[in-house]
Amino acid sequence: MKKPETDANLQSMQVGSIMRKVKSRAWKKQRYFRLQDDCATIWYKSKKAGNAHSTFSISDVEAVREGHQSEVLLSIADEFPPDRCFTLVFRGRRGNLDLVAESAEEAQSWVKGMRKLIENLENMNERERLDQWISDWFKKADKNGDGRMNFKEVQDLLKMMNVDMNEHHALRLFTMADKSQSGTLEDDEFVLFYKMLTQREEVLRIFQDYSSDGQTLSCRDLEEFLREGQLKQDHVQQHSMELIEQYEPSDTAKMRQAMTIDGFQMYLLSPEGSIFNPAMLEQHQDMSQPLSHYFISSSHNTYLMGDQIRGHSSVEAYIRYKHTYTHKHIHISTSQYPVILSIENHCSVEQQGTMAQHLTRILGDKLLRNALEGKGSDLPSPEVSNLQISLTLACCVCVSIQKSKQGLSKELSDCVVYCKSVHFNSFKHSRIHSKFYEISSFAESKAKKHMKDAGAEFVHHNVRQLTRIYPNGIRTDSSNFNPQEMWSAGCQIVALNFQTAGMEMDLNDGLFTQNGCCGYVLKPAFMRSLEKRFDPEHPEIRDGYRPVTLTIKVISGQQLPKVNLKEGSIVDPLVRVEIHGVPKDQARQETRHIDNNGFNPMWHETLTFTIHVPELALVRFVVEDYDKTTKNDFIGQYTLPFSSLQQGYRHIHLLSKDGTSIPPSSLFVHIRIKEGT
């Protein structure tokens, strides 16, 4: 990591602190924590552990919470004041690290210092990220810690990096990089070795195809690349100059308004060169429509950390499940749009009154208690709810309450405004009798039956009414159903077990990454009109039917992670592309596998799909380690809405099974979208 400017908090962290690591009320042990000189790693050890120590990277930490903001720290609140306590929240599903400092001042040094380091990491440019990655590999390979690498250490490094290279070729690269002829590689020599190792022949070939002189891309060369390679038509002259200014590292080339191969590769690896259109990551959709016109990110039995029967119940689950996206996820405490709380009520009438008191006392004016003005015949919009409520726990949420067998208390009933839970009879009955503020809940199997029997009516019903879908009761293992089927019928609240990683959660994360990760995605126009008819089983029977052809050329992969930790094991990767949408669009194709190359596998294979309802389609890229005798091992994946695809040469920055990033692992592809089949 590029070392930050001198900072008192970071200096204090580098000196180190003795703090209590807390796992429970009974387990509180002292550990010595220190920020290493690279400002990228935290080192810690027990006083009694001899030389044994542990480390974690700053990049593993997603957030820092101050005070008693975890169940563990709340349990010891009577022993230690909040100003000495803080929690490090890790990415993915790794447990929190709860710490108690010796003083409030020391806690503040760590809280402020960690936040600064996280911010620095998030603001790194591509060159700095590459430097950090190189530095990380150097430290892993330098086993004896002498600041240099001999050839044996380099050979071990190649295995760690998933590179199957014969000894002769590896020695040739090593010798070329060893400019000092010392038989070892030091800082700059290792950087040279790494660059020779990671030279991208396929990127160089594209660069040279568009370069007039074979050395650089002039502004005119870059314009041609943007038009032909990236399939862009608008403002290409202005855009080419902006790209040079932003990504070209050579001042000499910049002065000539030209781009070198280094700048070209940095552009392709940047967010602008990503397959996900950056404009779609921002909040860009109309948020003034009724709640029933949006897909709403929803979790099922959110309090569970594991399966439905033995799973530990914890408020921590509500906090942790916002950390599953690569991009910033939906923050219950900071989202500007309303949250719907669905309460399954098994309490006595007396206890319901107590529950109502807790809701009103804890949520206060965040709880919507009265209908919003001017919304007499329609559900409010996320935007209007926000203006009225100011924060998120807009239980216009919320509160949706299913009656207990003992009846519903008036106090609890008064907490419900817009989401009155009602039994579903039939679509015909709902058309005649249902009120706009009523919501029906369906188990997944019941919802599938309605889709099969009356798909178009289900879509029509969901124009005006909210529908909640939840997993079948037999899913005691907290497995998930495919949410795409439900979205294809216009169902808004499709509740998944967020604690269970897999394809279903990948689809959920992929859909809700767009529109600022606010938890609301506007449904397509044909699913928001009572006058229009859409049947997911027969998508061709609708106004504005325009199928498209999606062509994906899978070119190469970069630095894929090892999945089998056995020494000498190297992956045999293949790429599968899946289309998830209406039944007619469900499809998957895959490349051949590449033997023993997880470092820079080359496929150059073209996959073609016809998509009938692109507005509802999600595209999922999966990389697996091929095994001819057993099931393939998962390596990484990336899922995004079809509408967020960028055409042209793009990198796909892969995610782990639990949805966290695994830099610098990526795929390099070319995307082309054409109207018609």
From TrEMBL:
Protein name per the record: Phosphoinositide phospholipase C
Main location: cytoplasm
Family matches, as InterPro entries: C2_dom, C2_domain_sf, EF-hand-dom_pair, EF_Hand_1_Ca_BS, EF_hand_dom, PH-like_dom_sf, PH_domain, PI-PLC_fam
Catalytic reaction list: a 1,2-diacyl-sn-glycero-3-phospho-(1D-myo-inositol-4,5-bisphosphate) + H2O = 1D-myo-inositol 1,4,5-trisphosphate + a 1,2-diacyl-sn-glycerol + H(+); a 1,2-diacyl-sn-glycero-3-phospho-(1D-myo-inositol) + H2O = 1D-myo-inositol 1-phosphate + a 1,2-diacyl-sn-glycerol + H(+)
Essential cofactor(s): Ca(2+)
Domain EF-hand: 129-164, 165-200
Annotated organism of origin: Astyanax mexicanus (Blind cave fish)
GO biological process terms on file: intracellular signal transduction; lipid catabolic process
Name of one Pfam family that matches: PI-PLC-Y
Gene Ontology terms for molecular function: calcium ion binding; phosphatidylinositol-4,5-bisphosphate phospholipase C activity
Keywords attached to this entry: Calcium, Cytoplasm, Endoplasmic reticulum, Hydrolase, Lipid degradation, Lipid metabolism, Membrane, Metal-binding, Nucleus, Repeat, Transducer
Subcellular location: Cytoplasm; Endoplasmic reticulum; Membrane; Nucleus
UniProt domain PI-PLC Y-box: residue ranges: 412-528
